Amino acid sequence: MSLYLLALFCSPTLKAVFLAVFIIATIYFYSCNYKTLEIKSIPWFFKLFFLNELLRLLLGIFHNANYILHFKNFFLAIITWLAISLILQNADKQKLAQTVSLSGFLVSVYILLQCLSILPVKNPGIYGFLQQPFTNSGLLLAALYFTLYLLDQESRKTYKNIYLVIFLCNLSAIFVLGQVTVWAATLVSLFIYAFLSKKLSLKNFLLLVLVFVSIISLASFSSPRIMRKLSWFTDIKKLTSNRSIECRMAIWQINLDKLKTSPILGFDKVQPYLCEMKDEVSKLSHAHNIYLQKLFEGGLIKFFVWMLFYCSLGLMLYSKKSYSFLCYFLAISLEGLLENWWGDSEVLSLFLFTMLFVYHVELTNARKTK
After folding, report:
1. Cα–Cα separations (whole angstroms), residue 215 to 173, 286, 320
2. Residue 136 — very low, low, confident or very high, per pLDDT cuts 50/70/90?
3. Looking at the predicted structure, is the pLDDT value of residue 11 above 60?
4. In this structure, are residues 136 and 130 in contact, taking their beta carbons and an 8 Å threshold?
5. Is 325 exposed, middle or buried (0-12, 13-18, 19+ CB in 10 A)?
6. For residue 300, with 0-12 CB atoms within 10 Å meaning exposed, 13-18 middle and 19 or more buried, which class applies?
7. CA distance linking residue 274 with residue 20, whole number of Å
8. Which of the two ends of the chain, N or C, has the fewest CB atoms closer than 10 A to its terminal CB?
9. Using CA of residue 146, residue 149, residue 151, residue 156, what is the dihedral sign?
10. Are 314 and 142 in contact (CB under 8 A)?
């Protein structure tokens, strides 16, 4: 599993090698433990995931003649998540959570070292502090809420302090990356977590607010790009007339008009839009919205099935009172209003892994109480 998580953030060549090792390890694990694995304990929402992927396969074939590619994507998705679901039945959940938390901590330390100019920064004017800030913010968000989960579970003061340091490092790195959508999603979800969990005293809450203000101050002084983005919140006109928002609204309008010609089945690919920002022209090739993306590429049928699957995840988290991961779900959902993270395989993999993790943690706890 550690190899699998590492593979998500490597170069394409290393990713292929790591995933090959992961599949071989999965087959070996299954062959050794097949007697103790229960097919019946596979999550019920996995069936909705299967239905969603099957619909994507059929619509992909309908819109595009590349049958081999669509079948490959379908079987890879199903086999991977079936394998992870089976492995999680007997895996050490605490160690898995620590692996994700530690991975995010290492990335956040790397980002902060770049912020302090201790490590070289690549293309800071375009990408912020890393080549792929969106992918890294996806890892940091997952690590942030896995760390919250560990804080909830931990009773030893020393370990709680360690997890708190990791949490603050992840939070700092998220703001240093300079993505407004991630900022907003993180802030809203953390306030909701503080309200739902009721484990945060007023004193500790005010302390966290003070730390948060300090992080913003440090980040804004260390990066003109971040300071410029923070200035948007002081002027509503700047925020509403932001060129990036205008381009997103333009591509939504173009594809909504196109959808009228085929509302039931949609169309194969989102119609791109050329967005002029400053002195550059960038091509928006997707909807920058996880909800509209599904509507455009698969029509009302795919949108309904996908929303059924997606909402079932939120209901599962709420019913199990897994507040740390419920707020992670809310953060991802809010960010999805302006970003199509569902098309990013790394972020999607971590998201689905988290959902399966929560399900099997609760399943394990239920068995222990019997």
Report:
1. 9, 32, 33
2. confident
3. no
4. yes
5. buried
6. middle
7. 38
8. C
9. negative
10. no
**Residue 222 has which token pair?**
């260390």
Q: Mean pLDDT throughout 246-270?
A: 88
Residue 245 C-beta-side C-alpha neighbours within 13 Å:
11
Between CA 218 and CA 225 the distance in angstroms is 13
**Residue 281 phi/psi, 5° resolution?**
-120, 120
* Structural domain boundaries in the chain: 37-236+289-369
Cβ contact 54:70 at 8 Å: no
Enumerate residues 6+ apart whose C-beta is below 8 A from 109: 169, 173
Confidence of residue 359 (pLDDT cuts 50, 70, 90): confident
**CA 216/CA 180 separation, integer angstroms:** 12
Residue 319 neighbours by CB distance under 10 Å: 10
Nearest CA to 76 among 112, 11, 3, 22? 22
User: Pick from 353, 368, 367: which is nearest to 143 by CA?
Assistant: 353
Per-residue model confidence (pLDDT) at position 307:
92
Task: Report how far residue 167's alpha carbon sits from residue 147's, in angstroms, rounded to the nearest whole number.
Answer: 6
Question: What is the Cα Rg of the chain in Å?
Answer: 21
Distance of CA 368 to the CA centre of its chain: 30
Residues pairing with 174 in the sheet: none
Q: What is the DSSP letter of 342?
A: G
Find how far residue 15's CA is from the centre of its chain.
18
Q: Are strands 273-277 and 280-284 parallel, antiparallel or unpaired?
A: antiparallel
Helix (H, G, I), strand (E, B) or coil at 344: coil
The pTM of this model reads 0.82
Residue with tokens 């090792």: 21
Q: Please determine, for residue 127, whether its predicted confidence score (pLDDT) is greater than 50.
A: no
Tokens of 284: 């928006």
